[in-house]
């Protein structure tokens, strides 16, 4: 199979973890006889430094001409006081909008061997397998007016939370499609007791549910959902929610797996190409030290192989390799557990890589 992949390492730990994921993609390419043509492009603070904008047009063109996109992370203190249009995070928001990536899938699977790496009790997290479907191109991230520092001539600040019905409907449809392939239960999370956008969200969820009689829909208020995720996460299968709630709840959900460094994601549009990225950020506190956990990014490439290229066997081998390496006790510092082998980013990548060779040789 021949595929073009746009690679956007970004800032902070982005380049380190993306290098690891690319190494794994190249191993898959060799072992299974595929050709992945990689084109690197800038996004985020590094792009602002080079070109004055966090999302150069060239990057958009490269992404649009690709079959899939792999992204590391953007941002860092160096760029925090720039005017808003030059901030790294704007690059990320703009590429999501430019590619119409409205549905962000964030699976949270608790690996048995990491049950001791989470601050939560083992019996609460063991067996957790849920997925957050986060709306990604609407809501308060994209409302207008925004970025205002006055209200009626007085100092203040404005952001606007808005949704068109069609934006709500398409992401809820996507979540139902995901739920059909899983245990057929959806929790739609909103703040319908306070927000009009949430009340409409709830109405639309009920309408969409009529088309999926075999999927059970429940509604939950976001504050309760945040609490239930920690108290009894196994009650959840698919969680569908708006942009900002999904951002917050998925970082919270990552603690069920042991670390933010474990959570992969895929961002889907109607037409493709899709974008794959870990849910975590550029981790400036550990950037450049070769200690970041590369597994979220490696697992994002396995999502790419499965969802964009329908390469199920190849995706599964990566997932099995990650599981085996964790079972053998390899740990970056964010997922330490008793008697583990503490490894660097590169050593973790090499362990997964070796495991893939062994798995393929044994089949
Ligand atoms: P963060 O996700 O970068 O880091 C939060 C904490 O988790 C830090 O202690 C970090 O060291 C740790 N962490 C994150 N990823 C890790 C990994 N792979 N391995 C080990 N530890 C990991 O969030 P933050 O510190 O709030 O934000 C830092 C910057 O990243 C900000 O500029 C923010 O805007 C940006 N950000 C970008 C993205 C993205 O590109 N998708 C996502 C979130 C935050
Ligand atoms: C994420 C990040 C981004 C978001 C930021 C960096 C714009 O937190 O990908 O989860 O809030 O969507
Ligand atoms: Mn986030």
From TrEMBL:
Binding site for substrate: 96, 106, 134, 223
Record pathway: Amino-acid biosynthesis; L-leucine biosynthesis; L-leucine from 3-methyl-2-oxobutanoate: step 3/4
Subcellular location, principal: cytoplasm
Binding positions (NAD(+)): 76-89, 281-293
UniProt keyword list: Amino-acid biosynthesis, Branched-chain amino acid biosynthesis, Cytoplasm, Leucine biosynthesis, Magnesium, Manganese, Metal-binding, NAD, Oxidoreductase
Cofactor: Mn(2+); Mg(2+)
Reaction catalysed by this enzyme: (2R,3S)-3-isopropylmalate + NAD(+) = 4-methyl-2-oxopentanoate + CO2 + NADH
Residues binding Mg(2+), per UniProt: 223, 247, 251
EC identifiers of the protein: 1.1.1.85
Residue stretches spanning the membrane: none
Family per similarity comment: Belongs to the isocitrate and isopropylmalate dehydrogenases family. LeuB type 1 subfamily.
Name recorded for this polypeptide: 3-isopropylmalate dehydrogenase
Naturally occurring in which organism (per UniProt): Niallia hominis
């Amino acid at each position: 199979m021949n595929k073009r992949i746009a690679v956007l390492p970004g800032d902070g730990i982005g380049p380190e973890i993306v290098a690891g994921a690319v190494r794994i993609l190249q191993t898959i390419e060799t072992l299974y006889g595929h050709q992945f043509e990689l084109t690197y492009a800038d996004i985020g603070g590094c792009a602002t430094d080079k070109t004055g904008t966090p999302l150069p047009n060239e990057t958009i063109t490269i992404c649009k001409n690709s079959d899939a996109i792999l992204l590391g992370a953007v941002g860092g203190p160096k760029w925090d006081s720039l005017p808003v249009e030059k901030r790294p995070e704007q690059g990320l928001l703009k590429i999501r909008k430019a590619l119409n990536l409205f549905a962000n899938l964030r699976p949270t699977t608790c690996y048995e061997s990491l049950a001791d790496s989470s601050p939560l009790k083992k019996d609460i997290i063991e067996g957790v397998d849920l997925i957050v479907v986060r709306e990604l191109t609407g809501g308060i991230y994209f409302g207008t007016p925004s970025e205002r520092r006055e209200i009626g001539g007085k100092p203040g600040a404005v952001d606007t939370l808005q949704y068109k019905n069609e934006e709500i409907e398409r992401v809820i449809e996507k979540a139902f499609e995901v739920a059909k392939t899983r245990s057929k239960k959806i929790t739609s999370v909103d703040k319908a007791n306070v927000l009009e956008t949430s009340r409409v969200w709830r109405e639309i969820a009920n309408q969409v549910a009529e088309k999926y009689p075999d999927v059970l829909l429940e509604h939950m208020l976001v504050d309760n959902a945040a609490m239930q995720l920690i108290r009894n996460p196994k009650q959840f299968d698919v969680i569908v929610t708006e942009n900002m709630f999904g951002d917050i709840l998925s970082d919270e959900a990552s603690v069920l797996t042991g670390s933010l460094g474990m959570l992969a994601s895929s961002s889907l549009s109607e037409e493709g190409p899709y974008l794959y990225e870990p849910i975590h950020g550029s981790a400036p506190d550990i950037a450049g030290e070769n200690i970041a956990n590369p597994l979220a990014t490696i697992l994002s490439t396995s999502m790419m192989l499965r969802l964009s290229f329908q390469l199920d066997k190849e995706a599964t081998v990566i997932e099995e390799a990650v599981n085996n390496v964790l079972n053998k006790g390899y740990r970056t510092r964010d997922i330490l557990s008793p008697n583990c082998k503490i490894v660097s980013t590169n050593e973790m990548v090499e362990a997964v890589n070796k495991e893939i060779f062994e798995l393929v040789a044994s089949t």
